[in-house]
Amino acid sequence: MEGIDIEAAAATFWANAPPINDPVRAAVLSSLQLNCVCTPHTPQPNAVITPSILCPPVLTSDQLLLWTTQAGQFWQDELELKLPNSIIFKLFQVMVKSLDQDTHSNYGAGLLCFTQFCDSTQILEEDRMPASEPLLSAFAASYASTVSDKTLNNWLAGLHYWHIINNATWNVETLANNYHYSNFHIPWTKTTKEMGADISITERKHCTCPLHTLGSHTVINADIPNTAPLFSYKTPNGWLPLTKPHFMSRCNEVWVSQGYPDMPRHAFRISGTTKLLLQGISPDIIATQGRWASQAFLQYWRRIETVLPLFISSSSDVARLHSIDSVMDNFSRKNNLPCTHA
Known about the structure:
mainly alpha
């Protein structure tokens, strides 16, 4: 910073910045500027966003407070109809002061990267907050190999706090071991018909992670109408809903090209169940995840025992397979069902 007049640079920055389109938040910012002097830097070439009145050009540390979306603006407009500005001023001031300056900067950097990601994938401003779980998963996946887990967790924490400041719903759940998961409802299943079912998917540190995959799907197919089925995809002539025959045809095309056998559609259920059992997951949890009653799950297990060799490839899995018999027998006794073996 040799030869640079920091105070003059800061004064020039604030003098040239466009007016902030929110007098209450601007007042909160002014009150905080008295206690902290920040140095503006020339933006890096990769730190550019699409111009928006909702995201004015301000210091990274101020973006949490001064950047918003239509949802945040609507909430504040309603708040101003019910409370005097002095109370709203205090509300924002307390929230902003609860973080130290370094945290403001770190959280702001995450919000900047999130905004750049949304710009690059053409996510509409109204869809950025509340941010859907697939969108947040896709954002995290896009940086998974370029930043550390600590940095990514800080960015997500910053996005969470940005939602809190704007009274927006945060759609990410975090398990005790820092894994993320998502729950959503589907309107129809083969067994429940119109009642549908609640689906739970959990993050996996693997290239097949369902959360990252779902997030990538929603980003790639972002232009599809909201009324389309969840797994619809873009085509040269518009979009199509994903069907089971097309899905299995594509899977088998890939598998066969890599030297694997053609698989039936139940391969996913069979191999998924077997994999979880081999990992030591309780049959009760697997039955719940598969939405089976205890009797139905036991009957299903008996049916797939005859085709297990198709899905067991390593000697270690074969060795562990023998332990599953006792696990399933215990499951049977616990649920007062006939044992799997005589």
